[in-house]
Amino acid sequence: MKTAFIHNSILIVLFFALSFAHPATAKAIETGTEFSSIRINEFMAKSDTIIDWIELYNPSDYPINLAYNLRISDNPYKSGFTFQNSAVVPAKGYLVVWADDVNAAANGFQHLDFKLDADGEYLALRALDGTTIDEVYFPKQAKEITYGRANNTGEWGFMVSDTRGKANDDILLESPISDTPTLDKESGIYKEGFAVHVQAPKDTKIYYTLNGDEPDDKKEYLLVGTTIPISTSTVVRVMAEEPNKKPSKILNKTYLLDVAHDLPIIA
Length: 267
Known about the structure:
Immunoglobulin-like, elongated, Lamin_tail_dom_sf, GH29D-like_dom, Lamin_tail_dom
């Protein structure tokens, strides 16, 4: 009798434990309004080393399965790609999908039926009934720079670093590319040597060459305020790198010292 009582008591405890178990520990949500919390969080649209990708974020306390429940689109007038197979976004976690125009879900990775347009585009998450859950119109993108929401404000902008699979930075960049520097001397013919002043924002690193090669941002650099001495006919090539930004375009200037000429100098 005592053994049967203990056995029945254990069964009752297990019944109630399973009945009231937290849904997040049992199964990903597959129906309901919880899908409206999913957000487009970050993406990369231009890279030489990796295909286009989009990161989704789930701020809720429950894992959410997007399969056959949400669509993602790169066109305001098209319904978009329906997530397939298992597309679970963990609670307060991330899911990365690949925008490579493959349209095949394999090995747990979602491959979308479109690529991102690095010249600027539209991106949206939609419910199956067409309701827009989240959307963003984004500008022209820079190579190897991601575009995402600031972690503290939710505002969109260029990111200081790739934070795929983790919380985004709080800092956004208005432009991911450094401003092209300027020189205080124009290309031309000069009677004697001089020093060229490089003009760029404070704390900018200045890379330059005097032999015609492209400046290398892996080599030594000058700081703004330093001058470049010109003592012979020279082609100066200058590039700037501001903090947390990619290097600028290269500026070229040609200086000829005490040279007779009949044609204009172009650089």
